[in-house]
Amino acid sequence: MKYLYLLRHGKSLWKNYDGNDHERDISKKGIEKTKNVAQKFLLKNEVIELCLYSSSKRTKKTLRIFNKIIQINKKREKKGLYHCSGAYIFNLIKKQNIKKSILIIGHEPSFSEFLDIIINSNVKINLSVLGEKIYTSSLIKIAIDVSTWANMNRKSNTLIYHICPDKYVGEMKKKSNQS
Predict the structure, then answer these.
(1) Which string of b and e fits 31-43 if b means at least 16 CB within 10 Å?
(2) pLDDT for 77-111, tens place per residue?
(3) Which residues contact 171 (CB under 8 A, 6 or more apart)?
(4) How far apart are CA 161 and CA 143, in angstroms?
(5) Residue 17's pLDDT is what?
(6) Among 129, 138, 168, CA closest to 5
(7) How far is CA 79 from CA 70, 88, 99, 126, 172, in A?
(8) Which pLDDT value is given to residue 130?
C-alpha cells in the first residue's frame, strides 16, 4: 500500500499583484491556515518520505510553513507542477521510487484533474466533503493499493481523509474499484 498526500498551497496574497502569478506570496490568513492543517496532520503520526512541490513562491512558502511542523527530509522542486495537468501529476508520481508516502504541494485545477484520473469515474467525490474544489491549505490523503508507484492506476484507490484549514472533515473511504 502506498499513500499519496495532496496539499494545496496557502491562500495567496493579492495585494500589490503585478500580474506575475508565479511570484505571488501567501497571505497572513494562508499562513495561519497552513499551520492549522500541519498541526492536524501532526496529530495523525504519519510520515512523509518525499515532498514534490511546484516552483511558485506560494508553494515554496507553504512547504516551509508545513515543514516547520512536519519534518520532511526529502524535498524536490518540480517546475512542471506549476499550472500542470492532472495527467502530468499522474505520470510524475509513477516515476517515483519511494517506499511508501509522497506529498505533493501544488495548485488547482491540477489537483481536481488528477483526482478525476486516479479515482474511478464511477465513484463520485462527495462534494459535501471536498467542496466544489480543493480549497487553499487543504490536505487530502489517498491510499494507492499497489506494490510500486509505477503500477499506479485507477483501480483500488481510496480517498482516506481530507483536512480542511477550518475543520477536519474526516474519514472518507471512497474507493475506486473499476474492473
Answers:
(1) bbbbbbbbebbee
(2) 999 999 999 999 999 999 999 899 999 999 999 99
(3) 160, 161
(4) 10
(5) 73
(6) 138
(7) 23, 11, 23, 31, 31
(8) 56
Domain limits, the chain: 2-11+24-177
2-11+24-177 is classed CATH 3.40.50.1240: yes
Q: Which three cell numbers stand for residue 147?
A: 506494490
Strands 168-177 and 74-77: unpaired
Q: Which of 48, 70, 78, 66 is nearest to 8 (CA)?
A: 66
Asked if 169 contacts 125 with a C-beta cutoff of 8 angstroms, the reply is no
Cβ proximity of 155 and 120 under 8 Å: yes
